[in-house]
Design goal:
6-stranded mixed β-sheet; binds NADP nicotinamide-adenine-dinucleotide phosphate; 6-stranded parallel β-sheet
C-alpha cells in the first residue's frame, strides 16, 4: 500500500487501544476494494479528546470509529447526531462531511445485521437482554427499531437495567428492567424467543464464566446470541448449542458494525468476506 497526501484517513479513537482488530479489518477492505484509504489506531487519552476531535477536521480525516471510553463523551464535541446515535445515546462512528462532524451508531444496526445474516428475524419476538452497559443500549435500540414485541433487560443491578428501560420508554413497547436474580426474571426468560448476552462474561481469558439461566425452562426454539467474540464460541453459546438452541456469535456484530462504518466513509458496499477473513485471522492470533 502506498500512502500519499491524497490518501483518505480514517482511524480509531479510544484509550487504551490495546490490540484492536479494526485496523486489519478495514485496511483489508480498502485494499480489496481498490480504495485509497488508510485506517489508523489513534490512542487518545480522555483529557485530550477535544483536541483530537478538533484535529480530525484540521488534518483532513474522512472519519473515525470511537470506542471505550469516548463513545458518550464525544457527543458534545460533534456538530450533528444521526438518529441511530441519538437513540442509543452513544457514538461509535464519525463522518467528517464538509467540515462538519456527524456522529452515528453502527452497533445497533450491526447487531441486527448479524442476526439477519444468520437467518434470524426479530419481528414480533420477545427478547431478553442480559447486561445493562453501553452494548446493551445499542442492542435494545436495534431490537426496537426492527419490530421486536417486547424487551426485558436483566442485569445484576436492577437500577442500571431500569435506567436503560426508561431511556426507551417513549418507544411505546414494553421495555422493562429486571434484576436477574428475581423470580420475575426467570418467568420472562422462559417466554423469550431471543436471549442475548451483552456482559463480558465468557470473554478471554475468563472463558469458563457465563450468565446463569434456568436452561430447562427455555423454549426449545429460543435463539441464543452473545456479543463476546473472543472466543468465537463462548461457554454460553456452547451450552446453548449442546441443548439444541440456534446460536449467533459476537463476531457477526463486529463484522456488521464495521461494514456499516465502511459504507458511511466510502459510499461503497463493504467487502464482507475479506473483512471476516481479516477478523478471524486476528482472533486466532489474539486468543492463542
Ligand atoms: P459495559 O458498558 O462495561 O457493560 C457491561 C455490562 O455487563 C454491565 O451491565 C455490567 O454490570 C455487566 N457485567 C460486567 N461484568 C459482569 C459480571 N461478572 N457479572 C454480571 N454482569 C457483569 O461494557 P459494554 O461496552 O456494554 O460491552 C460488553 C461486552 O460486549 C464486552 O465483552 C464487549 O467486548 C462486547 N461487545 C461486543 C461488540 C461486538 O461487536 N461483538 C460490540 C460492543 C461490545 P455492572 O454495570 O453492574 O458492572
Amino acid at each position: 500500500m502506498i500512502i500519499t497526501a491524497k490518501t483518505q484517513k480514517v482511524g480509531l479513537l479510544g484509550w487504551p487501544l490495546g490490540h484492536s482488530l479494526s485496523p486489519a479489518m478495514h485496511n483489508a477492505a480498502f485494499a480489496v476494494s481498490g480504495l485509497d484509504y488508510v485506517y489508523l489506531p489513534l490512542p487518545t487519552p480522555p483529557e485530550l479528546l477535544p483536541q483530537a476531535v478538533a484535529g480530525l477536521t484540521a488534518l483532513g480525516f474522512t472519519g473515525v470509529n470511537v470506542t471505550i471510553p469516548h463513545k458518550v463523551a464525544i457527543i458534545d464535541l460533534l456538530d450533528e447526531l444521526d438518529a441511530s446515535a441519538g437513540l442509543v445515546g452513544a457514538v461509535n462512528t464519525v463522518v467528517v462531511s464538509n467540515g462538519r462532524l456527524i456522529g452515528y451508531n453502527t452497533d445497533a444496526g450491526g447487531y441486527i445485521g448479524s442476526l439477519v445474516a444468520a437467518g434470524v428475524s426479530v419481528a414480533a419476538k420477545d427478547a431478553v437482554v442480559l447486561g445493562a452497559g453501553g452494548a446493551a443500549r445499542a442492542v435494545v435500540a436495534g431490537l426496537i427499531e426492527n419490530g421486536i414485541t417486547s424487551v426485558a433487560i436483566g442485569a445484576r443491578s436492577a437500577d442500571k437495567a431500569n435506567a436503560i428501560a426508561n431511556r426507551f420508554a417513549g418507544s411505546g413497547l414494553p421495555v422493562n428492567g429486571i434484576a436477574w436474580e428475581s423470580s420475575a426474571f426467570a418467568e420472562t426468560v422462559a417466554k423469550a424467543d431471543i436471549i442475548v448476552n451483552t456482559t463480558p462474561l465468557g470473554m478471554y481469558p475468563d472463558t469458563m464464566s457465563q450468565p446463569q439461566l434456568d436452561w430447562e425452562s427455555l423454549k426449545p426454539s429460543a435463539v441464543i446470541s452473545d456479543l463476546v467474540y473472543n472466543p468465537l464460541k463462548t461457554s454460553f453459546l456452547a451450552e446453548a448449542e449442546q441443548r439444541g438452541h440456534f446460536v449467533v456469535s459476537g463476531e457477526g456484530m463486529l463484522l456488521e458494525q464495521g461494514a456499516l462504518a465502511f459504507s458511511l466513509w466510502t459510499g461503497c458496499p463493504a467487502p464482507r468476506p475479506v473483512m471476516r477473513q481479516a477478523l478471524l485471522a486476528g482472533l486466532s492470533n489474539k486468543s492463542s
